[in-house]
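User: I want to check something. If I give you two sequences, will you return the structure for each one separately, not as a complex?

Assistant: Yes, each is folded on its own. Here is the first sequence with its structure:
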Amino acid sequence: MYDFNIIALKLAETVLGIFNINIEAISKNLELIEKGNVDNGRNEVFDKAIEGIKEHPFIGNGIGDYAEKYVTYPHNLLLQSWYEGGIIFFLLMLTVFLYSVYILLFDKNVDLNRKYMLILFFSISIVRLMLSYEFWREISFGMYLYFVLDIMQENWDRRKKQNGNSNNTNI
């Protein structure tokens, strides 16, 4: 008996094929399912990254070490940041990521247009980097980081100014 997902993928591939449209992701997933290797080797890649993290959890293994050793990359932003930069770098990356979620959901001081831009940078960089690619080579990730850090600086300056004004009124 076929799984619904396989039927849906085959149907999509057939319908798109009628219009001469080939979506590589559909073909690749069907091929992996037929081979019985749906993880596409990523479990092995993740396991190697976790082994490296265990070897040097605090200081990391250095920028590009994973690619140099295994001729690939960890396929996950958080794993790569911990593997290469250690726990401190991982926590910094996680903080920026969580702060951007905070901005989007709770920060009423950030203009709606800036939130839209943050969503754009998030979707073109973080989503991709959680599934594939290296963040050192992803230009959109640099733009995302700059944008989040810029908002963070604005919020810091606003709080500093508010605290300065409240201190002056108490004199």
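And separately, the second sequence with its own structure:
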Amino acid sequence: MAHIVCVKNPLKTPASLLLLAAFSGIASAQSFTLIQPSNVVGDSPYGLSADGSRVASGGFSPQSPIGERVAYTWSRAGGANIFGLEPGVRANSEARAISGDGQVIYGNAGRDTNAAGVHAFRWAGTGTYHELPTVQGYTSSFIRATNGNGSIAVGYAQFGRPGRATRPETR
């Protein structure tokens, strides 16, 4: 049995529905959860905890400056937790990877997620935002995946040229 989670995105609803249709033939029985956070729009879900209970994402919040994304997690029990608005978190953040237990989040934050000056981060609860160092000689770092317990993350660094894979040290 498969349980498929779909974020209702008013800007991309047809794409979300297409995703559901693509999975419909894979499992013999399915259930669907339509995530509709009331305080975030323009969602881009990127990661899912091992049990499927928590989603790592980025979206636009009424509390964020116009045009800037905020990193957040979503769970059925707690709804949206917009940690991208915590003090110290850089503007324009996205949660891109989540540990298996859903407790450790990695992502990137900066003025433009495709330009120089973007930095990878690690977050494991209120007040734990930690910006990861950028690889020497590069101006931006991005995290795209983490292992089950969140102790290792993988991503890339760039400086106006194709990215180079990195493995940031976590403590």
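Because they were folded independently, the notes below concern the second chain alone. The chain is about 5% helix and 40% strand. The mean pLDDT is 74.
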